[in-house]
Amino acid sequence: MFEGCEKLTQLTIPSTITSIGTHAFNGCQLLMSIVIPSSVTEIGDYSFKSCLSLKEIMIPSSVASIPNNAFDGCISLKKVSIPSSVTHIGNEAFSECYSIECIEIPSSVTKIGHSAFHECVSLKKINLPDIKVIEHSLFSDCVSLAKVFIPSSVTKIGANAFKRCSALNEINIPSSVMSIDSKAFSECSSLDNVTIPSSVTEIGD
After folding, report:
1. Are strands 179-180 and 202-203 parallel, antiparallel or unpaired?
2. Is the pTM of this model over 0.90?
3. What's the maximum distance between 2 C-alpha atoms anywhere in the chain?
4. What is the pLDDT of residues 166-183, one digit of tens each?
5. For residue 101, what pLDDT is reported?
6. Is the dihedral of CA 70, 72, 73, 79 positive or negative?
7. DSSP characters for 133-169?
8. Which of 38, 79, 44 is nearest to 61 (CA)?
9. Rounded CA gap, 60 and 17, in Å?
């Protein structure tokens, strides 16, 4: 709809809108502010991808899912409000959001897609909700990530999940985990304390 409108800086979506389509604001490089009304129940894939100037987003409680690549490449995005209505965060949803330092994921979220926080280089800590799988590349290249809480619901840590998290110095793997895929903690150069529980039956290369 407004894809590639490079001079658009501000937008208020009227309360008559119930859905934001795929690629709706993709590439609106100067868009700094947008208000999403509570009438919106669905946000499409890539809807705000590469909105380079977007600093803050408040997702209304009418939304149940943050789709694939929704805010991918929003390099100025620093504040994100995710309501307890959200149960799913899609693949690469916040990938390459360089300015996010902290994000609160509500306990309602049961699935987070692969690479959702890939290369969030300013992200320092995160508490994961009760998901079952830490998908591949979920936090890869999060070079400032020093603390992460893995809940006892997790059974699998995917490939490259924490690859190149060079600030991560300790990780507590719960006894619920049965498999750790290849390169899950590759190039975590500060990691000096890891306990692998006896529940783990498979470790990748």
Report:
1. parallel
2. yes
3. 56
4. 999 989 899 999 999 999
5. 94
6. positive
7. EE-TTTTTT-TT--EEEPPTT--EE-TTTTTT-TT--
8. 38
9. 13
